[in-house]
């Protein structure tokens, strides 16, 4: 199916004129070059996309010869998929050939489309914005239908990760789910055990951050798609509540915050989740910190409580905890006000150190103990006492305290 002038070239090219040069060179050498997959899908959907996938009817050797003739650097980056990488000026593009060295047939473009996973990913476009749609992908995209190409069973068997890709695109665009495709994913869920955890995690992270994450995750966990890897979340509806809250507040999504609000883990389960999701050290440490932060609404009731909370756990942990504590709060403006307060507070720093005691002639044997005592005093004051105030406090307790230690 050919749709003339369906999308503007600017949406496809994305201000990269180097790609137009590649189109002209392929045409000069008797070939055809087209955008495919995400580049076309996202342009039609109105999304910005950095990656550009290209397909040509030139064979890998023909494309490589073209690059040599034109003085372009070309390297094979996916021989099994007949993919080459080419550098033009400062731009790098991946170009996949329709076939091997064998003679192409008249249905070569449709045959290439048939090898792809979903109808919405099998749409092609030329540099003028003309679109070539062989499996009604545009209609499915417009109607939010996520559907495998051809027989779902065969499509999944070609690459097991397509099960997770199906759910990822459901989370991105899915308003309607093709039952045959979904049933095939459910029936073949055990095949995911053969996929590396890193690949599954990558797809799951994208699902978690997508617009229809809650609906898609409900389907995943209700049907035990990932039972071999992870237990169902404690309350997936918390994710929907969080989405509503951060949308109102204009806050960006955070993958760790989303994991935390779904699973509400204690420190032990947070560690297991970090291993399951293959979180990096920074992500793992933050998830553990969220789980270990013993904060309730009372910790945000006034400036003294807020200062103490920020000193104990840090500003970002306090902000995320505050959001998670207010998922059911209908007074979102109050949530915003406290969030603004948390943002404006300067993180408290205990103003004393050992040198301060040496300067006033304190016994060096007891400096560690003095620091501990005064830090507790300072903390209970709401982390507000100045250095001078603390030193006066030290003078008040010094004699009795030191005498008791000597005895």
General description of the model:
By secondary structure, the chain is an alpha+beta fold. Helices cover 53% and strands 10% of the residues. The chain has 21 helices and 10 strands. The strands form 2 sheets. Strands 1-8-7-2-3-6-5-4 form an 8-stranded mixed beta sheet. It has a two-stranded parallel ribbon with strand order 9-10. A hairpin with a 4-residue loop joins β4 and β5 (83-88).
Strand order of the largest sheet: 1-8-7-2-3-6-5-4
Radius of gyration: 30 Å
Summarize model confidence as the mean pLDDT.
88
- The gross shape turns out to be elongated
**What proportion of the residues is helical, as a percent range?**
40-55%
Instruction: Return residue spans where pLDDT drops below 50 for at least 5 consecutive residues.
Output: 1-5
Multimer state: single chain
Number of helices: 21
Number of strands: 10
Query: Strand fraction band?
Result: 5-15%
Strand-pairing-aware structural class? alpha+beta
Taking the sheet with the most strands, its summary is:
8 strands, mixed
Calculate the terminal CA-CA distance, rounded to whole Å: 95 Å
Q: What characteristics describe this protein?
A:
407 residues; alpha+beta; 8-stranded mixed sheet; two-stranded parallel ribbon; 21 helices; 10 strands; 53% helix; elongated; disordered N terminus
Short description:
The protein is built from 21 helices and ten strands. It is an alpha+beta fold and 407 residues long.
Outline the secondary-structure elements.
Blueprint: E1 2-3, H1 9-13, H2 18-28, E2 33-36, H3 38-45, E3 53-56, H4 60-70, E4 73-78, E5 83-88, E6 91-97, H5 108-114, E7 123-125, E8 131-133, H6 137-142, E9 145-146, H7 152-158, H8 162-173, E10 176-177, H9 179-187, H10 197-208, H11 213-222, H12 237-249, H13 255-263, H14 267-276, H15 281-292, H16 303-313, H17 315-325, H18 332-344, H19 354-359, H20 367-380, H21 387-406
Parallel strand pairs: 3-6, 9-10
Antiparallel strand pairs: 1-8, 2-3, 2-7, 4-5, 5-6, 7-8
């Amino acid at each position: 199916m050919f749709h003339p002038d369906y999308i503007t070239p600017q949406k496809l090219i994305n201000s990269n004129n180097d790609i137009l040069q590649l189109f002209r060179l392929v045409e000069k050498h008797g070939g055809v070059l087209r955008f495919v997959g995400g580049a076309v899908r996202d342009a039609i959907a109105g999304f910005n996309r950095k990656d550009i996938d290209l397909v040509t009817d030139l064979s890998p050797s023909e494309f490589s010869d073209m690059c040599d003739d034109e003085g372009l650097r070309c390297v094979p980056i996916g021989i099994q998929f007949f993919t080459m990488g080419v550098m033009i000026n400062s731009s790098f593009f991946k170009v996949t050939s329709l076939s091997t060295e064998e003679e192409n047939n008249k249905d070569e473009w449709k045959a290439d489309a048939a090898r792809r996973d979903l109808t919405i990913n099998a749409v092609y476009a030329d540099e003028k914005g003309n679109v070539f749609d062989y499996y009604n992908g545009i209609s499915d995209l417009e109607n939010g239908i996520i559907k495998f190409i051809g027989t779902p069973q065969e499509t999944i068997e070609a690459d097991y990760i397509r099960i997770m890709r199906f759910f990822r695109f459901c989370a991105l665009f899915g308003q309607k789910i093709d039952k045959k495709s979904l049933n095939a994913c459910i029936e073949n869920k055990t095949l995911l055990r053969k996929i590396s955890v890193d690949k599954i995690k990558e797809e799951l992270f994208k699902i978690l951050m997508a617009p229809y994450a809650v609906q898609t995750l409900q389907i995943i966990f209700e049907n035990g798609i990932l039972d071999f890897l992870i237990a169902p979340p404690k309350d997936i509806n918390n994710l929907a509540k969080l989405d509503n809250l951060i949308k109102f507040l204009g806050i960006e999504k955070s993958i760790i915050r989303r994991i935390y609000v779904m699973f509400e883990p204690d420190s032990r389960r947070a560690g297991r989740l970090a291993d399951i999701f293959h979180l990096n050290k920074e992500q793992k440490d933050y998830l553990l910190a969220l789980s270990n932060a013993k904060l309730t609404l009372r910790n945000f009731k006034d400036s003294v409580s807020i200062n103490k909370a920020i000193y104990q756990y840090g500003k970002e942990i306090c902000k995320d905890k505050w959001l998670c504590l207010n998922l059911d709060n209908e007074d979102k403006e109050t949530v915003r006000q406290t969030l603004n307060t948390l943002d404006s507070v300067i993180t408290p720093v205990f103003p004393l150190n050992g040198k301060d005691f040496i300067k006033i002639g304190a016994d060096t044997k007891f400096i560690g103990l003095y620091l501990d005592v005064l830090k507790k005093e300072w903390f209970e004051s709401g982390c507000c006492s100045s250095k001078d105030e603390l030193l006066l406090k030290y003078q008040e307790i010094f004699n009795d305290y030191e005498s008791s230690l000597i005895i």
